[in-house]
Amino acid sequence: MIKVDMDKAKGIAHTIRREKRAKEFAPLDDQIAKQIPGWEQAEAQRQVIRDKYSAIQDAIEAAGDVAALNSILVRL
């Protein structure tokens, strides 16, 4: 039987979450940095992404087993 260290598994899940969030932020960050017309709307879109990944972060922390973590990561 394999025993999983849940703290390490959650750490890995958070790393994956951060990478996915960064990919979603990238085009918006570029638009904001260059102040391309509509950049204010891009900031609002960034907040939507922040809220989405905040909920995912909470779900990762609440996960009680590997199956729960996997189900969260599959939805990313």
Topology, please?
Blueprint: H1 6-33, H2 39-62, H3 66-74
Question: Could you describe the 3D structure shown?
Answer:
This protein has 76 residues and is an all-alpha fold. The protein has one domain (6-74). The chain is 80% helix and 0% strand. It is built from three helices and no strands. The chain has helices at residues 6-33, 39-62, 66-74. α1 runs antiparallel to α2. The longest helix has 28 residues, at 6-33. It is elongated, with a radius of gyration of 16 Å. The two termini are 28 Å apart.
Range of strand content: under 5%
Helix/strand order, N-terminal first:
HHH
- Give the N-terminus to C-terminus distance in angstroms: 28 Å
- The helical percent reads over 70%
The count of β-strands is 0
Largest sheet: none
Q: What integer value in Å does the Rg equal?
A: 16 Å
Which labels suit this protein?
3 helices, single chain, elongated, 80% helix, mainly alpha, 76 residues
What's the gist of this structure?
The protein has helices at residues 6-33, 39-62, 66-74. By secondary structure, the protein is mainly α. It is built from three helices and no strands.
